[in-house]
């Protein structure tokens, strides 16, 4: 044991306890770093004497007697079966002292076990003192605050689960609607086939519940060779100059088939989504599944909540009296978030009933 | 042999925590914490994540302070960190760059790319550790 200072001075200085073999403090880069008079070291080459001194320091007047930090040689601790750590953990006032272990190499150290034992951090022998000191400073403040704050062990459960009642509702209503929908779809298939070549149904990747990607089913309402037609009729584009090509708007979009116009107007093209509902990709009522490029614009604080809700065929803003075109994106997103935070089977029924008049109003769903 | 990797998400907005939890929870074991302090406490309780997704502005202990203490640590300094910030303040980006982050993303972010990047970063870390 080496005593550095007169007891009076010792009380005001910060004491760091070093535990290790005789040459431990020499091997640490401590001696060569300037640290002024505020830090003083107390060395121990035996674990039991270190332990005894530490226990004694807790009996003094308040924490001014307690060391600022403890730095120990890792292998020394290992050889001692970590008994020094056990004795520190058993004493509440010693537990909050930053405990640093020094080791030749971090490879092979069981970090998790070390943390549980009470080692706050571990550095390789050649680490510069300023890094170690920074870490000690942080740990000193952190450990004291931590011990006074139990809330930090709370676990948040984030997994979104579809409520059983809602799923049951979807299956019942979905199956019932399949009957009339089936007839309408049958008629649509015939009409689409008669008018233009190509598959009747198509699937687009959309973002649904919990940002889950799924194939979103629709009836085709455009010509199969839409792009070719587009090039031919570019001169009719309402946007000219630079914007032509990126944004396209035509009075009567020639890409849309005549049958397509009808099925879009009455949202018949959306009927195949009943299949998504029965499969479990979607719900009857929920937040509209968005194309990927649109969805990634909504991953902001607050807005992102709209994904923590079931995706649905119809929803709050689709049935809003204002109509989609008279609402801003902000307003629609706000309704999505509102739905995500407060939905219920009864609320869904109300939305479903409001969907019927909404179908016949102007504009797209 | 292939046990699930652990990801720590430190973010003060609940909607983003839930989104990331749902997005990443299928492939990884995700833990979410609402501020840097809670995140740090979780680490000191003996938890070592394979990757951290870190918000910048948080109460109690903000992103930069959290990152600094991780990078100063012997135990944690090798953990890859992806920053997910509400802004792209040059000073923040520069500091994060200096301390070493795998990526600096701003909101709104592309969740599918994030998932892909995380999988690439974890694969690279695993290969590096094998040597």
**Structural class assignment of chain A:** alpha/beta
Report the span from N to C terminus of chain A.
82 Å
Low-confidence region ranges of chain A = none
Total DSSP E strands of chain A: 10
Low-pLDDT parts of chain B are: none
The secondary-structure element order of chain B is: EHEHEHEHEH
Biggest beta sheet attributes of chain A: 5 strands, parallel
Q: Using DSSP, what is the number of strands of chain B? A: 5
**Overall pLDDT level of chain A:** 84
In short:
By secondary structure, chain A is α/β, with parallel strands linked by helices. Chain A has 15 helices and 10 strands. The termini of chain A are far apart.
Descriptors for this entry?
heterodimer, A: 365 residues, alpha/beta, five-stranded parallel β-sheet, three-stranded antiparallel β-sheet, 15 helices, B: 131 residues, 5 helices, 5 strands, 45% helix, globular
What secondary-structure arrangement, pairings included, does this model have?
The complex is a heterodimer of chains A (365) and B (131).
Chain A: H1 7-12, E1 14-19, H2 24-27, E2 39-44, H3 47-57, E3 69-73, H4 74-79, H5 83-89, H6 92-95, E4 99-103, H7 111-117, E5 121-124, H8 129-147, H9 164-195, E6 201-207, E7 213-219, H10 226-232, H11 258-265, H12 273-279, E8 283-285, E9 290-291, H13 292-295, E10 312-314, H14 329-341, H15 345-359
Parallel strand pairs in A: 1-2, 1-3, 3-4, 4-5, 8-10
Antiparallel strand pairs in A: 6-7, 6-9
Helix pairs in contact in A: 3-5, 9-11, 9-12
Chain B: E1 6-10, H1 14-24, E2 29-33, H2 36-44, E3 51-54, H3 63-71, E4 81-85, H4 90-99, E5 103-106, H5 111-130
Parallel strand pairs in B: 1-2, 1-3, 3-4, 4-5
Helix pairs in contact in B: 3-4
Could you characterize what this model shows?
The complex is a heterodimer of chains A (365) and B (131). Chain A has 365 residues and is α/β, with parallel strands linked by helices. Chain A contains 15 helices and ten strands. Chain A has helices spanning 7-12, 24-27, 47-57, 74-79, 83-89, 92-95, 111-117, 129-147, 164-195, 226-232, 258-265, 273-279, 292-295, 329-341, 345-359; strands at residues 14-19, 39-44, 69-73, 99-103, 121-124, 201-207, 213-219, 283-285, 290-291, 312-314. In chain A, strand 4 (99-103), helix 7 (111-117) and strand 5 form a beta-alpha-beta unit. Chain B is of the alpha/beta class and 131 residues long. Chain B has helices at residues 14-24, 36-44, 63-71, 90-99, 111-130, and strands at 6-10, 29-33, 51-54, 81-85, 103-106. A five-stranded parallel beta sheet of chain B has the order 2-1-3-4-5, sandwiched between helices. In chain B, helix 3 (63-71) links the parallel strand 3 (51-54) and strand 4 (81-85). Chain B is globular, with a radius of gyration of 14 Å. Chain B starts with 5 loop residues before the first strand and ends with a helix. The model of chain B has no long low-confidence stretch (mean pLDDT 92). Classes of the chains: A alpha/beta (365), B alpha/beta (131). Chains A and B meet through helix 7, strand 5 and helix 8 of A and helix 1, strand 2 and helix 2 of B.
């Amino acid at each position: 044991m080496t005593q550095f200072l007169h007891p009076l001075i010792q009380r005001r200085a910060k004491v760091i306890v070093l535990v290790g073999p005789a040459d431990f403090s020499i091997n640490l880069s401590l001696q060569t770093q300037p640290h002024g008079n505020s830090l003083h070291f107390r060395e121990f080459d035996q674990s039991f004497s270190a332990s005894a001194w530490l226990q004694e320091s807790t009996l003094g007047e308040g924490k001014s007697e307690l060391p600022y930090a403890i730095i120990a040689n890792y292998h020394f601790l290992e050889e001692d079966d970590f008994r020094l750590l056990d004795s520190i953990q058993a004493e509440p006032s010693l537990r909050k002292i930053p405990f640093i272990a020094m080791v030749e190499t971090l490879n092979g150290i069981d970090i998790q076990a070390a943390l549980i034992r009470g080692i706050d951090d571990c550095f390789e022998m050649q680490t510069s003192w300023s890094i170690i000191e920074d870490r000690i400073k942080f740990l000193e403040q952190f450990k004291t605050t931590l011990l006074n704050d139990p809330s930090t062990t709370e676990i948040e459960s984030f997994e979104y689960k579809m409520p059983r009642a809602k799923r049951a509702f979807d299956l019942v209503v979905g199956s019932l609607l399949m009957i009339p929908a089936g007839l309408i779809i049958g008629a649509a298939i015939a009409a689409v086939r008669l008018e233009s070549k190509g598959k009747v149904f198509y699937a687009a990747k959309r973002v649904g519940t919990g940002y889950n990607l799924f194939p979103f089913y629709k009836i085709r309402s455009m010509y199969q060779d839409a792009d070719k037609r587009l090039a031919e009729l570019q001169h009719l584009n309402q946007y000219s100059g630079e914007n032509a090509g990126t944004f396209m708007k035509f009075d009567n979009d020639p890409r849309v088939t005549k049958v397509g116009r009808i099925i879009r107007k009455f949202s018949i093209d959306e009927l195949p989504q009943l299949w998504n509902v029965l499969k479990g990709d979607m719900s009857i009522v929920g937040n509209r599944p968005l194309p990927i490029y649109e969805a990634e614009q909504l991953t902001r604080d607050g807005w992102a909540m709209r994904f923590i809700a079931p995706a649905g065929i119809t929803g709050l803003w689709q049935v809003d009296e204002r109509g989609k075109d008279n609402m801003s994106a902000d307003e629609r997103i706000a309704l999505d978030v509102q739905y995500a935070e407060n939905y219920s089977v009864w609320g869904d029924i109300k939305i479903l009933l409001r969907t019927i008049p909404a179908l016949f109003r102007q504009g797209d769903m | 042999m292939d046990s699930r990797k652990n990801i720590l998400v430190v973010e003060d907005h609940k909607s983003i925590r839930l989104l990331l939890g749902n997005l990443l929870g299928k492939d990884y074991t995700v833990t979410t914490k609402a501020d840097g302090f809670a995140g740090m406490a979780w680490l000191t309780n003996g938890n070592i994540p394979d990757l951290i997704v870190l918000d910048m502005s948080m109460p109690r202990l903000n992103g930069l302070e959290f990152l600094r203490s991780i990078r100063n640590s012997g135990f944690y300094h090798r953990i890859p960190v992806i920053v997910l910030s509400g802004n792209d303040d040059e000073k923040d980006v520069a500091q994060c760059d200096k301390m070493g982050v795998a990526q600096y993303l701003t909101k709104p972010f592309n969740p599918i790319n994030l998932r892909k990047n995380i999988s690439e970063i974890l694969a690279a870390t695993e290969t590096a550790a094998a040597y």
